[in-house]
Every structure is written in C-alpha cells, then in structure tokens.
Amino acid sequence: MRAKRCFLAGAVVFIAANLLLSGCAINLYKQNPKQRDKIKSLEATVDSLEKQRTAERKRFAEVKQMLAKEFQTEIADRNVGLKMRGRNLVITISDAILFDSGKAEIKSDAFSILNNISAVLKTKVPDKDIGINGYTDNVSIKHSKWKSNWELSTARATDVLHYLVKNGVSPKRLSATGYGEYRPVASNATVKGRAKNRRVEIVILPEFEKKRPDDEKKDQEDVK
Question: Which residues pair with 204 in a beta bridge?
Fold first, then answer.
C-alpha cells in the first residue's frame, strides 16, 4: 500500500508539473472552470506533499545528529555508521560487535547500542516503518548450522528484529530481510572489505502521509 501511495504521489507531481508548464493547460485554466479547479487541486496536493517531505527530511536530520552524538565512540571505531540513502536513514552496525563468527545470537557488547536505537525508534520516529537487513561477505560457510550466507544473514536480521520488539518497538513496524553476500559495499578481495560487508542495517523508512482508516478497509477488501 505504501508503494502504491508513493507511486500515486509521484504521478500527481508529474501530471501537475506537465499541466502547469504546458500552454494548453494555461488555456484550459482560463477557459474551463472544471480544469481550473482540477489544476488548483493538483497544486494544493503538490504543495502538501512537499511540505511533508521537507518536515520529514528535517526530522531525519535531527535523528541522525542525535545518533551521531550518542554513538561517537562506536562511529570512531567503525562499529556503527550513519547515512542518508535517498530518503531513508540507515544505521549500520558491524557484525564484529553484534555476532560471533558464523552465529546469529546477539552478543552482550551490542545490547547498549540496540537499546539506544530502540529508544530513538520509539520516541523520535514512532510513526515510521523499520527495515532490518542482514549482509555477509562472500566466504562460504563451512562449520556452521546454516546452509548458506543467505540463511545466516536472514537469521541475524531476524534476531535484531526480535531484540527491538523485546525493547518495545511495535512488531507491526518491522520487517527483516537477509541479502547474504549479494549486496556488498566493499571488495571481498581484502580483509577490510569483507569486514565492511558483514553488517546489519536498520533502515528508517519515510512515509509522507498517514494511513487512513478507509485505507485499512480497502486493504482488507483487496485480500478477499
């Protein structure tokens, strides 16, 4: 449903821009009251979306700044990273601090980091959905219960998800995905590169309009 709304929002912006910039639209605006009302409605929609986006960018920037201050030591040690990826705010945590090699149980060293992140998710972005993504390097698993890096990365993402839920983050907001070795951020040819690739990302996802009750009802009808 979110993807549909984002697509519709983009379509509205595109249509409005083309209508407003075309000479035909200007003539219609002058001659046809219905077209004039339609253009005004599109202008209002575009303006509303832009205001929501601006407010959201500001809020994400504030959250990023707060996290950067909270995790100064971890960022300096390269155990935590913060960045904007498009409109998403991405918190990257190295597997070195999260897990033992080949395992998916969170180490106690990571508890304080995840506790602080949980608090931010609950208090600063309580209305945003959260994606938790697990990644590995390309070294094949040999001495582990996991069939492949895909299973390992998925189990790690899911374990982080359960930890956030245990700390009070609503499970309705969360999803977990394992990408294995197939989304590297560095070369797997070096030790340092492989270390960067072994990570979990907690992604705060943007949403420019709240879901209305009638949207929930429509979702249910679509399933039937």
Answer: 89, 130
